[in-house]
């Protein structure tokens, strides 16, 4: 059984949390020899939450994660590679944060060193204070200049849908037209008066993968609701339905998944894969659209397990 620095047993991420009195003891037991910046890999089922960003009076993914940071005494704030709206899930969200270290001179590079294996088990400790549908899959050493949002050069989303009634050729023609666009004013929520609507899509295509389709869409940055509005237009085209470019609707959030973030330097994660298995089971059990949920999780689990640079915790 894993144990904390004071030898007390650690919950391996069941989502049950610990009692308030135990939280106090756990926090006081931590020794802070220095601080360091780390990257966290996070997966979550967005159903039942009001999005990623913390909001007063609402249950959010970010609110739970910041609570876990403070409850463990590891840190205070997180910066995320992207944002997800209410109901949207993530399989590979990257967050950066400053945490305490029990290494006097911690590693501040992108490569894993021996000292990193003697570091606090950040993922396990945070999962002790998180619900079972939010899991920290692993952590990676990074330089202090790393910022999950501003260092990121590409974000990737996938939107999953059934094939019935959809013409993939028409969908990909629409996707190709959208990819060539430069101004996405009509594909955004217009929630920011000072926003600039110029964007460039690196990828926008519909993939036929067995009994299901998914939209693979990638860009350096997206506008608010941009992906779900693009999906709405592509689905309309797939059904042979016309639409007004000035009246773009918004697709349902549940089949949308934030799949990854790309950085100039590859991140090497120390991962506790047991947490991912628990998260996968929770999503398969609770998702409304079971068929899509099961498919996308099996598909993305395979991709996750094949990622280069991930190190399984000994």
UniProtKB/TrEMBL annotation:
GO biological process terms on file: mRNA pseudouridine synthesis; tRNA pseudouridine synthesis
Catalytic activity: uridine(38/39/40) in tRNA = pseudouridine(38/39/40) in tRNA
One Pfam family this sequence matches: PseudoU_synth_1
Transferase listed as a keyword: no
Alphabetical list of InterPro entries matching this protein: PsdUridine_synth_cat_dom_sf (IPR020103), PsdUridine_synth_TruA (IPR001406), PsdUridine_synth_TruA_a/b_dom (IPR020097), TruA/RsuA/RluB/E/F_N (IPR020094)
Domain Pseudouridine synthase I TruA alpha/beta per the UniProt entry, residue ranges: 183-241
Entry EC no(s): 5.4.99.12
UniProt keyword list: Isomerase, tRNA processing
Catalytic class of the enzyme: isomerase
SUPFAM superfamilies: Pseudouridine synthase
Residues covered by region (Disordered): 1-27
GO-annotated molecular function: RNA binding; tRNA pseudouridine(38-40) synthase activity
Entry's Gene Ontology cellular component terms: cytoplasm; nucleus
Similarity comment: Belongs to the tRNA pseudouridine synthase TruA family.
Name recorded for this polypeptide: tRNA pseudouridine synthase
Organism, as annotated: Encephalitozoon hellem
């Amino acid at each position: 059984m894993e144990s904390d620095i004071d030898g007390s047993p650690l919950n391996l991420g069941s989502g049950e949390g610990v009692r308030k009195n135990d939280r106090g003891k756990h926090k006081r037991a931590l020794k802070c020899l220095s601080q360091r910046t780390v990257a966290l890999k996070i997966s979550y089922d967005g159903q039942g939450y009001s999005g990623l960003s913390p909001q007063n009076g609402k249950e959010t993914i970010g609110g739970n994660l910041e609570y876990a940071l403070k409850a463990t005494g590891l840190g205070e704030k997180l910066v995320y590679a992207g944002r997800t709206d209410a109901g949207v899930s993530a399989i590979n969200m990257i967050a950066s944060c400053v945490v305490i270290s029990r290494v006097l001179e911690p590693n501040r590079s992108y490569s894993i060193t021996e000292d990193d294996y003697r570091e606090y088990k950040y993922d396990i400790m945070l999962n002790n204070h998180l619900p079972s549908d939010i899991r920290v899959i692993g952590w990676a050493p990074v330089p202090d200049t790393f910022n999950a949002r501003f260092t990121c050069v590409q974000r990737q989303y996938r939107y999953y849908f059934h094939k019935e009634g959809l013409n993939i050729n028409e969908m990909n023609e629409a996707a190709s037209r959208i990819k060539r666009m430069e101004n996405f004013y009509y594909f955004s929520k217009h929630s920011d008066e000072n926003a600039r609507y110029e964007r460039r899509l690196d990828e926008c295509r519909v993939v036929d993968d067995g009994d299901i389709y998914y939209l693979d869409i990638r860009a350096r940055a997206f506008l608010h609701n941009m992906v779900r509005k693009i999906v709405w237009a592509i689905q309309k085209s797939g059904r042979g339905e016309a639409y007004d470019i000035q009246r773009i609707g918004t697709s349902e959030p549940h089949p949308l998944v934030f799949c990854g973030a790309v950085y100039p330097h590859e991140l090497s994660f120390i991962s506790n894969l047991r947490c991912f298995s628990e998260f996968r089971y929770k999503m398969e059990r609770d998702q409304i659209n079971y068929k899509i949920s099961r498919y996308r999780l099996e598909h993305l689990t395979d991709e996750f397990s094949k990622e280069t640079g991930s190190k399984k915790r000994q």
